[in-house]
Specification:
With 387 residues, this protein is α+β, with helices and mostly antiparallel strands. It contains nine helices and eight strands. It has two domains: 163 residues, Gyrase A, domain 2 (2-Layer Sandwich); 178 residues, Multidrug efflux transporter AcrB transmembrane domain (Multidrug efflux transporter AcrB transmembrane fold, Up-down Bundle). A five-stranded antiparallel sheet has the order 2-3-1-6-7. A three-stranded antiparallel sheet has the order 4-5-8.
Length: 387
Amino acid sequence: PAEPTAGTTDTTAAASADPLAIDPATGGLTDAACSTTLSADQLNPTGEALLPQCRDGVLLATYKVGPVGLTGSALDTARANLGQSGQWVVQPVFKDNADGIGKFNGAASQCYSKAATCPSGQLAIVLDGQVISAPSINAASFKADQIEISGSFTERTAKDLATALKYGALPVEFEMQQAQIVSATLGRDALHAGLIAGLVGLILAALYMILFYRVLGLFAVLKLAIEGALLWAVISYLGTSSGLALTLAGITGIIVSIGVSLDSNVVYYEHLKEDIQNGRSIRSATEHSFVSAFSTIVKADVASLIGAGILWWLTVGPVRGFAFYLGLSTLLDLLTSWAYMRPVVKFATSRASLLHRPGVLGLPAERNRSTADSATPGEPTLTGANR
């Protein structure tokens, strides 16, 4: 990209503007000028040029710019902030030397007094041969870090101008390292295949859980549905607020997280079955098993989060999408394991119709039904005896 350049401005149209497109009827520029890019070398550094101000390819205004006063190398940085009035402003910071704020104050003094070299009192900011802003000067001199460009900025336009000021002067040249053409059909087919794979995996995992754990397996499938709804809500919010997109790598991370979620249920259910086989009642085992099971779930999920974090830190591109969605799904698994899994199992085991039919829950029968609800394994119980 060309360096942003500054010069005196006049909104009166000039008759010559080669190589930009000129309307022969009016002598002004047309929308075609918005598609023309000029480098800093192509701009006349000593004379005048007719340059467009465009937005989204539409000509907004035409400026006659005078000689180049200073370039973007005079800037130290630029940032967009909310001003004291609550409106967005751009705050350029110039280098505190003769080539920075010194040159800017020289141009500002001419524009403030509306000298012959700057009759409009405006200073044009030019990038790639187009005027991106032409603020009016309201003081003869400024301090390097106390300059503010105000106007009818939105957050986007303020940040765009700050970015152009901050990075436009960098002498960056791009070299092509690799080029690959991917058709829209290939991308659509890959997305379709990923969704089909995820759906098939979800159905098979759900069938396995229901066949092996019966009603508890159904609860595990409902837990997946809750996590899916929460995940969709987060993706929708981040998509609107931060531009987050769901990629193929992200879909892969979500598919992997199905196993992570169901594994949490399996850990709890197996602890529950083991406690019942060791002599605890179903109701007692529901609470006792969750404590030890949740400790295991936390350790497993933390390991998954560490892996996702390392992938995010060490990689770029699509792999980061995989790491992000895997980590997000793992956090949701921790949330639903604590807030949903224990309460729903506790509710099921409190129902007499299910408590007396543990096989429906996918649990073994209690060893001693007469004392299971009142005794704790390892503690003596008192019962009546006939002599």
